[in-house]
Design brief:
The complex is a heterodimer. By secondary structure, chain A is α+β, with helices and mostly antiparallel strands. Chain A contains five helices and eleven strands; from the N terminus they run βββββββββββααααα. Chain A folds into two domains: 100 residues, Immunoglobulin-like; 125 residues, no CATH class. A six-stranded mixed beta sheet of chain A has the order 1-8-7-4-5-6, with no helix packed on it. In chain A, strands 9-11-10 form a three-stranded mixed beta sheet. The N and C termini of chain A lie far apart (45 Å). By secondary structure, chain B is mostly helical. Chain B contains eleven helices and four strands. In chain B, the strands form two sheets. Chain B has a two-stranded antiparallel ribbon with strand order 1-2. Chain B starts with a strand and ends in a 17-residue tail after the last helix. Classes of the chains: A alpha+beta, B mainly alpha. At the A-B interface, strand 4, strand 5 and strand 7 of A face helix 5, helix 8 and helix 10 of B.
Chain lengths: 252, 245
Amino acid sequence: MIRRFNYTDRIRIQRKDVRIKLREENGKFAFDADLSALADYELPPDSFVFVEAYRQANWMRFDFGQVGAITPDKKRDLSQFESPDGLLFRVKVTPNGDIHTMLAEADRIPLARPEQNEGERTPLLPVKPQKLGDEIYRLDFSDDRPLLLINSDAGNYADIGRSPAFMSLVYPGVFREILNRVLLIEKHDDDANSEEWKSQWVKFASLHPGLGELPGPDDTDGRTDWIDKAVSAFAKQLQARSKFEEFWKEGK
Amino acid sequence: MKLKKMTPEGIAKFAEYLDLLENEPTRLVPTHLLNDAGCSEDFGSATEIQKKDFGSRYAASEYLDDVLSKTGVADVVSDVGLWAWLTLLYFDELCPPKTSGERELRERPAYIPEPQNFQRYYRHLLLGPFLIFRAHRDAPKRAMALLCKPLPIIDDIVAQLASRQEFVSNPAVVELATNLYFDPAIGTIKKGAGGKGGGSPRRLADILWQFDVTWDLYAMSLKEFWAVLPQEFEKFRPAGLKVSS
């Protein structure tokens, strides 16, 4: 996937500023969206606001009026979706008129279920079981953020993920693979956007001691060294060697 | 025959067959599971379904849309048992034997869908086209670029566009892809549309991905897309195409 450039300085709306709740009425699903925080962004009051719901090949769009006067579509049932599972939302702000440029956007906003706490967060590296043939694990980048898949036929995936052998042998390699992807392949150069997974990983890596400043995107050698240091510090923090020894003694 | 769905036991046995088929590619298809009382059960209100050869993703989706609409079941999409049963019913077309009798398997999600993996739904050889067909049910022929191929084939157009929800759900984008790559005269994809160079589906996906930062793609019409598409796509523009909207 190519890198994307924000030539038009589109404003990124923080996901925390958008809260979308599921509502159930007579067995039908609908949603409510709290967009009051849009008033804090410097957007023209007469610009249009839309909320889109999507999953797989389905998509629905709802008119939410204007930034200065949020007026949600009266009909907000999610009739095109058979269930709310996996639904994501996108909030778009476009100029008043027929020019379809984007002024601001927030994407991949999950539904906050009624029982969900305000502070629930997505883990940095979600882990899921999946059939992988003879592979024990695989790092999957096909979704928005990396996902660690553990072979569901190999045993209980949660137990495998917590085992000393897996932790010591796999996690440092996974960490390296993600940093290679973010810093060398995609040449990502930002750790300030707390909502984007690439920035989150750069931030996480840079919190390890002794790394120094991240070299620029075109300094491949410098970045490779930086990644080596980050993985080394991560393995130390993980106590990977002692975990491996624990496993290895058990193996004897 | 009556439409059914597989029970968890049926799904496990079908998965076991797929495992065995990997090492024994001439192994007989366990069609008996389709009517085995422990492996399959009725689905929705009694609905007839025929075993037939479709020839294309479009024909299969059109037929399944018609059949599944009669079941009275609201959520047919996330029922793994249903799609596993349908896969077994049409297995000879989805995973056809070669003249040697050997079958060449694709990855597992091609046959047993992963309902929670919303990014890779399209890899299921029946559910993937069915979802695209349903998303464009008002005018499904606009999605011919994604639906014209035989069922076992997931070509680069599908892989590039169906994997990105912003594109596959957008009527104008899907119609644009059909205008660019589908040749209605031969009923399939134009020659040269499968490459990776200028004007290819991969380039289209990358360019739309960049446009998506700047433009509200869902508000754009087909005419507007044609107006901003780079020159490299001209070779695929249908002769005499007039875009009115």
